[in-house]
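Retry 2 of 3 after timeout on previous attempt. Resubmitting structure tokens to design endpoint.
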């Protein structure tokens, strides 16, 4: 994962809440008549060339670069706020 800001290209409101999606492969053997699992192996992580990210606000799923590029197109600017109470 890159150390760059994300911005959801779908809902365009989320910049902080995301999930990293991973995939696993787990081989198993089933009985042809009963459907009962007779053998099972350890789950192995499937390596991906680019991470898959999910927005926790709208559940949109896409590759990491979509979120990074959207943040680059619409950068967040820091604003100084000076509260004045009368």
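Retry 2 succeeded. Sequence:
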């Amino acid at each position: 994962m890159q150390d760059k800001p994300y911005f959801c290209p779908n809902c365009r409101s989320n910049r902080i809440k995301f999930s990293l999606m991973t995939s696993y492969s787990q081989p198993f053997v089933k009985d042809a008549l009963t459907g009962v699992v007779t053998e099972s192996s350890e789950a192995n992580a499937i390596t991906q060339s680019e991470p898959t990210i999910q927005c926790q606000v709208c559940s949109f799923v896409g590759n990491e670069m979509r979120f990074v590029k959207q943040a680059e197109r619409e950068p967040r600017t820091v604003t100084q706020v000076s509260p004045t109470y009368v």
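Attempt log closed. The chain has one helix and seven strands.
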